[in-house]
Amino acid sequence: MKLIYKIAKTELRNLFYSPVAWFLAIAFLVQCAIYYTGIVGTLAKGQDWYLTNDPTFKEYPMSLTQTVFIGSFIGFFTVLMKNLYLFIPLLTMGMISKEMNSGTVKLLYSSPVKVRQIVLGKYLSILLYNIFLMLIMSVFVIDGLLSIKSPEVEVVIGPAIGFFLLIGAYTAIGMFMSSLTIYQIVSALATFLTFYVLSEIGKLWQQYDLVRDLTWFFSIRGRTEKMIRGLITTRDVMYYLLIIFMFVSFTMLRIKGARESKPWFVKATRYLSVFAAVLIIGYATSRPGFIGYWDTTLLQTNTIHEKTQKIIEQLGDEPVEVTLYSNLLGDAIHRAAPKFRNEYVWDLWEKYIRFKPNIDLKYVYYYDIEDGDSTLYKRYPGKNIQQLATMIADINDLNPSRFIPPGEIRKMIDLKPEGYGVVMHVKYKDRSAFLRTFPDTKFWPDESNVGAVFKRLAEGSNPKALFVTGDLERSIYKLGEREYALHTSLKEMRAALVNHSVDCDTISLDRNDIAPDVDLLVLADPKVKLSDVARAKIRQFADKGGNMLIIGEPGKQEVVNPVLQPFGVQLMNGTLVEITKNEMPHMVYPGVTIAGTELAIEDQMLRKYNRMLKAGLGIPRVLNEGVSGIATSDSGFTVKHLLVTKNRNAWAKVGKLVTDSADPVFVREEGDYKLDSFSTAVSLSRQVGNKEQRIIVCSDADFLSAIRLSGGNLGVAYYSWLIYNRYPIYTPPIGEPKDVLMTISVARAKIEKIVFIWVLPGLLLLLATILLIRRKRQ
């Protein structure tokens, strides 16, 4: 070891006596300075502007430590590590080749020094230089942490480790390339080429099962991205250590082979042995159940939520089988083809496999078209379904023989209700459920969707919501702008109830009774009066403690009020009017109350509204287009007002309301009336037996319609509260960031920019010049 250290010391001294090392250090310093001062200066200016011009500004809405260091596109580490490959080839191109070129390598061969000691000494010297670069980088890290109030120090741990491992791997590669040729330029170009190959190899031959995992393992792309985000895994750490081991070993074998006159196949066997050892160890350390994880972020942003973890715990030791069905003739084959399998495994499922290693992933590739769908036949006339499959497989560079024909897939599973798309069928014990993909940019399901399916399978039951039909109510199957399919039964919408394990169906109360296992009954804007039979069934359901969502509209108070009367609630006469310069008079903007935000306080947006209201920072508002007031009386229910028009100068127009002409005029003689505040949504609750009965009454049915995006977060919260917040599976952050203010002023940021970009590099250049001149004189 002493000899290795001695060689490393000599190499390091020679390194700092060369202008290349100093040039790279200065370039690295300038690059760090530009990236760092850019983001810090922007945040400082932004904070100063908001504090000066916005009296409601208290803090930034995000973690500033994460923004500065690991933010997408602009984060210090994010940008720095993308450009790191530019420095290493220039640093390593002469590590071995200069010895070969000058002939000093023969002196090393004749000395008692072993090849292993030579290589390790040289590599250690470069690692020490890498530490020097990290010291330069640490100047900006320390300054950044000092420039943020209550910084999240843990954020920089992962990127720092990733930086050191990445530069160590790059160095090992560069050293091996330097041993292959006496020409330093060729060595540098070969190093660049190797970096490119390792970066792109993960995209090659992904459609072939035999080589997919091999090329994916050797791909360096994305390895540090998780570390930058703060997630350190033994799989990624071992990858870099194995890459370092492999190329350092290759360097030893190369130098050793140059001294020996052995057959080529003997030398090749040595290389293959190292390669095989790396593959075996890499495979073993990347299997589910053998990977260790360390989420260094304070709020555990790289780990699935504690609620999801508890749901997975409920599954016990029983395996979960997930079969991905991919349709060649569907619209999403470009996301679910065999060549994207590794992305599917590691991007979607790794975070769940971390807590349940016995999730068994299977794949079925098929081609089929819905009966009656002639789109493809019209686009490609004269072709049958098999010819279509062959043609599209060729276009996508896929093997058509891998795809099961319609006859076989229909015998295997019924995918007609799923539209023959890309869908996952999840099995657990004797239970199963579909986990869907969605036609948006994210495509794969969210954690709340996955958690809902797991919970459904673990508990063996799920909420059932019935929507009353037969009286011209809003439909959960139609896609019109006034309908409710968007947030209930539309499987293509990730936020729909059906994708959060809530079964939605309709019921005609004139013909059917309400089953005892129904969790929620919804009466959404009936246009004609309900029959006595229907009202009696609703009353009976309510008397037993059933939960309900009852929605009416202005002009139809006489239809809904008989249903509401037993609950002490009535829709008030008339239509609310709010005169503003931008909207029609029937468009009212009631404010969300604290009670409204607490329907589903785990929802991130409602939690933000809750804090805003309690801090007196404003009132979040929603749009009610055509709404009446709601009156309540004492009937044994606890009443909470969810949406109110307080401070909006709203009043009720009882006469005919004209919305497309001049502003309506308040005429008391026509029955128009004013109140200090109108409620447009209320919640009712009471104890019935051993359960709490919950009812929500709204006076604007359009609020939950497709044209109003189903009421957004608040609309989802209505349903969540009515089913006791069992679904959706909200996964909010486990806490709020504390590093939300900068401590650095704009003036100081400008000074730092000058110091970091000009003064420090100038001092380093001066030091390098003095050292190199003194060395030359000696």
What does this structure look like?
With 778 residues, the protein is of the alpha/beta class. It folds into 3 domains: 2-296 and 746-777, no CATH class; 310-458, no CATH class; 518-722, no CATH class. It contains 27 helices and 21 strands. It has an 8-stranded mixed sheet with strand order 8-7-9-10-21-20-17-14, sandwiched between helices. The protein has a 4-stranded mixed sheet with strand order 4-3-5-6, with helices on one face. Strand 9 (520-524), helix 22 and strand 10 form a beta-alpha-beta unit. The longest helix is centred in the first third of the chain and has 35 residues, at 19-53. The model has no long low-confidence stretch (mean pLDDT 91).
Report the strand count: 21
Helical percent range? Answer: 40-55%
- Helical segment tally? 27
Largest sheet: 8 strands, mixed
User: Cα distance, first to last residue?
Assistant: 30 Å
Secondary-structure class: alpha/beta
In the predicted model, the low-confidence regions spanning at least 5 consecutive residues are: none
Query: What number is the mean pLDDT?
Result: 91
Tertiary shape: globular
Domain ABC-type uncharacterised transport system: 466-706
Transmembrane segments: 20-44, 64-88, 126-149, 155-173, 180-198, 237-256, 268-286, 755-773
GO cellular component, one term: plasma membrane
GO molecular function, one term: ABC-type transporter activity
